[in-house]
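Morning F.,

Quick status update on the modeling queue. The single chain you submitted on Monday has been processed. Sequence for confirmation:
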Amino acid sequence: MNSLQRDFLDRASAEAVKASHPFPQMAACEAALESSWGNSQLAREGNNLFGMKQHAHPIYGTMTLPTREFLLGEWKQVSANWVNYPDWRGCFADRLATLQRLSNALPHYKAALDARDAETYVRQVSQSWSTDPAWRTSDGKEFLVKLEALAHDPQAVPIPGLGRALKVLSFYRDYTAPPATT
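Structure tokens below.
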């Protein structure tokens, strides 16, 4: 992890704490993944670190940007309305409020919010957060490079979101590891 990445995680963790996130360091690592370390256009221009689409009843402003969505078994280019936050704290607070609001409809969000540790939190939230099929894994140890890989392994049982969780966990472990001594 380089110093810019660590600075991003420090800043994001601090904002997640201010937004009362139960696992602020893990939330910061999720934000790093979802926003390309704060370098995505959505993050730079809209303080949107999680790819949050605009809500039915907007609280914050809206940005319309092109995106790719996996619809009916294929990737399609579409325009989408995204939340434009005033700052990172608002982004973290809205993400947490969204998880809470949807926790009755999506049991993985409830399990994430009820988690006793950060690893359980991210494994649970990841099962419903992203619909990208590339985030599935067959055994929890290797990322699938392509969805077609599943077709060649009859014993593979895809676990939705596990690839995302493992990637976020790798950031988290790097971030929270004690400094190496030389």
